[in-house]
Structure formats: structure tokens, C-alpha cells
Amino acid sequence: MKLNFVTTNEGKYREVRGIAEEYGIEVSWLNYRYDEFQGESLEEVALKSAKYLANRIEPMFVIEDSGLFVEALKGFPGVYSSYVFKTIGNEGILKLMEGVENRKAKFVAVVVFYDGSEFHIFKGEVEGRIAEEIRGTHGFGFDPIFEYQGKTFAEMGEEKNKVSHRRKAFQSFFEWLTKNF
């Protein structure tokens, strides 16, 4: 089976391509830029994006939206993660967390698959904490400040791809896809 993954983020594409190969699915990168929608939840944002794309590209595509949710910041940056990363970055989140004891956080990923007639939604999450400093050189986005079992995602390298929120969402999707298509 062949499937288009719509993203402008090459790092996400490489991660998803690796997961897809485990299921015998070929994923092509469709580097298609579109305005990011806003909403109350990642599911709402991803579904709005998929519906927009359904009128512009061929069916049998998948998109993914993800966010960092920090408990002490009442879920911020959440659905605004991409914008927050572009504006204040990892340094800004660490600044907001100065002196905060509760550093619990989670990464959440939502995958939407459009088969030409229906939209299917899958979700994955991983719990961790916000590190006290930027650590590691691998990964992208908030990976250098998201700590999972003592290491930041940026310190984990390929090991991250075995436990990430994105992996969990795409595993659910690929398991479903292999049974239904």
C-alpha cells in the first residue's frame, strides 16, 4: 500500500516513514504548505486541516498534528505549540517554568487519515516532564526540553522513535489500516 503523508517537516516524515516500513506500508512525503488552523483541541485542528486538504489533493493521505501540554501552564502551549516554538522556542518555555516545581508535561499527536470518503482519527501520547535546561542535539521542536525517563527526546536519538507520541498515534493508525484496507 502507498500513502501520502502531508507535512512540511522532514523530521516528522522520516520518523513516520520508519514506522510505516514496519507495517509494509510505503509513505511518500507530500511537502505541501497550508495555513495552520486553530481550534480547542488537536483533534479539531487536525480535522479542519484534513478537510481543507481533501479539496486540494488526492485522497488516501494522512496528516498529523502534535503539541506539548505542560501541566503547570494549564496545558500551554498545547494546540499553539507550533506558533509558540516559532516565537519563544525552548528558551521561552524554560523561562516560563523558572521556579516551578511541577514540571509534568505530555506530548500528544493526532493523526487524521482521509480515504476519499471518510476521515479517521488516531491519537497517541507520552508523559514526561520539562527539563531544567536544553539538552541533546537530535530531534526537533521541543525535543531538547521534553524529558522522558531521565533523558530528553533530543538526547535519545533514534530511541525516541520507539516511544514517541507520534509512534503511538501512527501505530494505532497503521494497525487499523492493515486490517481495513
From TrEMBL:
Catalysed reaction per UniProt?
dITP + H2O = dIMP + diphosphate + H(+); ITP + H2O = IMP + diphosphate + H(+); XTP + H2O = XMP + diphosphate + H(+)
- State a single Gene Ontology molecular function: ribonucleoside triphosphate phosphatase activity
Q: State how the cofactor is bound.
A: Binds 1 Mg(2+) ion per subunit.
SUPFAM superfamilies in the record, alphabetically?
Answer: ITPase-like (SSF52972)
* The protein's enzyme class: hydrolase
Summarize where substrate binds, as residue positions. Answer: 7-12, 66, 140-143, 160, 165-166
What CDD domains does UniProt report for this protein, alphabetically?
HAM1
Q: What does this protein do?
A: Pyrophosphatase that catalyzes the hydrolysis of nucleoside triphosphates to their monophosphate derivatives, with a high preference for the non-canonical purine nucleotides XTP (xanthosine triphosphate), dITP (deoxyinosine triphosphate) and ITP. Seems to function as a house-cleaning enzyme that removes non-canonical purine nucleotides from the nucleotide pool, thus preventing their incorporation into DNA/RNA and avoiding chromosomal lesions.
Family recorded in the similarity comment: Belongs to the HAM1 NTPase family.
On assembly, the entry states: Homodimer.
Protein name, UniProt field: dITP/XTP pyrophosphatase
- Species of origin reads Ferroglobus placidus (strain DSM 10642 / AEDII12DO)
